Amino acid sequence: MTFLEKLMQVDRRWIYLAIGVAVIIPAIKSFNVPVSPSPEVKKVYDFVENIKPGEYLFVAMDYDPTSLAELNPMAEAILKHAFIRNEKVVIVTLAQFGPGMVEAITSRLATEFNKVRGVDYAFLGYRPYPAITILAMGVDFRSPFPVDYYGTPLDSLPVMRGIKNFYNVKGVIDLTSGNTADMWLTDGNGRYGFPLAIGITGVMAANYYQYLQSGQLFGIIPGIKGAAEYESLIKRPGEGMTQAAYQVVAHTVIILFIILSNVAYFATRKGRAKSGGAR
Amino acid sequence: MKREIPILIVGITGVILFLQYFIPTDWSMQLLGTSQDWVIVIGILALPLGIWSLVKANIMKLQVKGERFYAAVLLTGFLVMLIFGLPHRSSLEQGSTFMTLFNTILIPIQATIFSLLAFFVASAAYRAFRARSVLATILLLTAFLVMFRWLPLGFISTADNAIVAWILSVPNMAANRAIGMGIGLGGAAMAIKIILGIERTYMGHD
Amino acid sequence: MTTSQLLLNGIAVFLTFCIFSFLYKDNPFYKFAERLVAGVATGYWTVLLFHTNFRDKVWDTIVINHQFIYIIPALLGIAMWTRFSKNYSWISRYSIAFYIGISSGAGIPLIFYAGIFKQLQGTISTPLAFSWAGLNAFLIIVAVLAALVYFFFSAAHKGTMGTVSRIGIYVVMIGFGAGFGLTVMGRVALLVQRIIFLKGYAIALFGG
Predict the structure, then answer these.
(1) Do C140 and C207 have their domain in common?
(2) Domain boundary residue among C81, C101, C125?
(3) Interchain contact, C8 vs B13, CB within 8 Å
(4) How many contacts, defined by CB atoms under 8 Å, are there between B and C?
(5) Which range of residues forms the domain containing residue C151?
(6) Cβ separation A132–B39 shorter than 8 A
(7) Same domain for C34 and C76?
(8) Which contacts (CB < 8 Å, 24+ apart) does range A205-208 have?
(9) Digitized pLDDT (tens) for each residue of chain A, 279 residues in all
(10) CA A238, CA A37: separation in Å to the nearest integer?
(11) C121 lies in the same domain as C134
């Protein structure tokens, strides 16, 4: 067996080791990576930037700990942006393990930006059946959420006075790792017509550009790259930009893997054809 | 009684909610809100069914040698969360023992389980990502260009970013649009069949 | 970092390594962490449903606010529990029927509007012109039609249909390739987040 043939049949654990080492390198010696915002992320930034102080932004944080790596940095960046601009924020989560993370982020950022719960922002909580909940919220937030996450009636919250449903918010940003993006598009934007943007995981990112082109979405924040771009736009580096260096090394290794395996594949193809093998 | 009434309920509620879309008056919106609210209430009371199934299955596993320890671990985790969470609503706020358990156990394990996928995707890229045919080459090249965006290589990166932006917004967009429209047509057809009583698999068997 | 935080993070680090150990092979540490998270997650969800959903939406609505009409959906919800009985499981069909009917009826016009009409509109809304945007608009129409033809199985993919569907599969492959490239980014991000967490703990423990 030649070296190239051996290379093609390398134990998967060597590949795991290589990836493991690749992501440890930037942890030991980090470096800066330039981040240039893409138009789809810039549109989300511009939208939040153009909301006047005191006006409402609705943020849905529909993700679980499984995807916090990509979506927590987005959530932090957007909430920081809205808090800096003194916008009122209404938050909801339609993911079953979402509330714990939302509560942690909102309470931490509220302290950092001197915001008061119930006055500057509201966290409505969690409901199962996202499509149904979105449709019900479009009629009245108080219908699915008579009280907020902490058990306070919505009518008792100063931030919720005078706001009834999606017609009273300037727009909705959904940060999601699942099919709630489709529900916000179909049952939310499709039913009530509010401006909608989504922040999604890298895995999902390619699947939503058709909605951007059709105008059903005004922006997309795709994965950790999108989060890093948003952080660069608000000039507050966070985990998104920290991850960039790691991404560069990991991507380099994976690209090298692909090149190496293809070189080995083509170099050994002749031999395989001769011996009648077809791998 | 066992099958006809459910079909009737599906038909009547389905037609009413379908027509509601075309009559956006105050009372009709109220009807929409109330109906959705009712479904949420049904769901809240139905969801513990899944929880009970999991608990019951693991109680049974306590009798099985080899599974006993792991079933006990699962049930202990479940019970500990109930003990620290059920008595007070404030347990849902940061700082409580309940949330500490959430932050210390649930977040790291769930996040790490999914992080394993990074290793698997790298392995898949190495083992299966080969230019065996024209189609495989197209797929490989596109993925290559998208991944290449991360490398800070000056003007090459700038050009690559522009190409990827075009790929995402033209051919990729078109492919996903066709797939999405297919899914949409399929979903709508299924919903119509359900309302008309043609599709009845949701009822299970007698 | 206080001692208690250090200890708690130490547990999180231990559990993180328990899961990583699966990369070598399946083992008792991985199984332990996997079952533990299943139990904790179920417990968390139960508590969450109880406090913020059952109490707020069912108990308080009926018992405190006396909105007795909500007894009907509550009974329908409880009826779902008859699925455990061989003789009475048919009762749960009433609840399922209510849910399916409402979601299907409300969904049909929305699926058509958001999933089909708006998408068709997007495909043909940009005017064709001798410009970059015009060229892209033309390519979008061709690519969408070709991809649709590829997924249309009611006619044989021969002749013109075959040629168009061939273009369609090329378009679809570009879509899948883009998806794979972005998936790599997403998956790596999940791993990097864990590495950053471990790095933070190591710094807290040994100093940076």
Answers:
(1) yes
(2) C125
(3) no
(4) 387
(5) 129-208
(6) yes
(7) no
(8) A205/C179, A205/C182, A205/C186, A206/B168, A206/B172, A206/B176, A206/C175, A206/C178, A206/C179, A206/C182, A207/B176, A207/B180, A207/C179, A208/A181, A208/B176
(9) 688 778 888 888 999 999 999 999 999 988 888 888 999 999 999 999 999 999 999 999 999 999 999 999 999 999 999 999 999 999 999 999 999 999 999 999 999 999 999 999 999 999 999 999 999 999 999 999 999 999 999 999 999 998 999 999 999 999 999 999 999 999 999 999 999 999 999 999 999 999 999 999 999 999 999 999 999 999 999 999 999 999 999 999 999 999 999 998 888 887 776 665 544
(10) 15
(11) no
Which A positions 237-256 lie with beta carbon below 8 A of chain B? 244, 247-248, 250-255
Please report the residues numbered 96 through 155 in chain A whose beta carbons come closer than 8 angstroms to any beta carbon of chain C. 96-97, 99-100, 125-128, 131-132, 135, 144-147, 149, 151
Q: Which residues contact C18 (CB under 8 A, 6 or more apart)?
A: B109, C29, C30, C32, C33
Same domain, C78 and C60: no
Q: Is the minimum CB–CB distance between B102 and chain A shorter than 8 Å? A: yes
Same domain, C9 and C75: no
Q: Which residue of B has its CA nearest to C17?
A: B112
CB contact under 8 A, B36 and A258: no
Question: Which residues fall within 8 angstroms of residue C194, CB to CB, at 6 or more apart?
Answer: A69, B108, B111, B112, B115, C16
- Range A39-237 classified under CATH 3.30.420: no
For chain C, the chains sharing at least 3 beta-carbon pairs closer than 8 angstroms are A, B
A residues 94-113 lying closer than 8 A (beta carbon) to B:
97, 99-101, 103-104, 107
SS3 content of chain B, % helix, strand, coil (to 5): 80, 0, 20
Residue extents of the structural domains in chain A:
3-30+244-275, 39-237
Q: Which residues of A touch C111 (CB under 8 A)?
A: 186
SS3 B3: coil
Structural domain tally of chain C?
A: 3
Q: Please list, in sequence order, all residues whose beta carbon lies within 8 angstroms of the beta carbon of residue C67, skipping any fewer than 6 positions away.
A: C61
Of A16, A104, A140, the CB nearest to B119: A16
The answer on C55 and C7 residing in a single domain is: yes
Q: Are residues C177 and C133 in the same domain?
A: yes
Note the ipTM here.
0.92
- Residues C141, C196: one domain? yes
pLDDT in tens, B127-167: 888 888 999 999 999 999 999 988 888 888 889 999 999 99
Gap from B58 CA to chain C (nearest CA, Å): 10
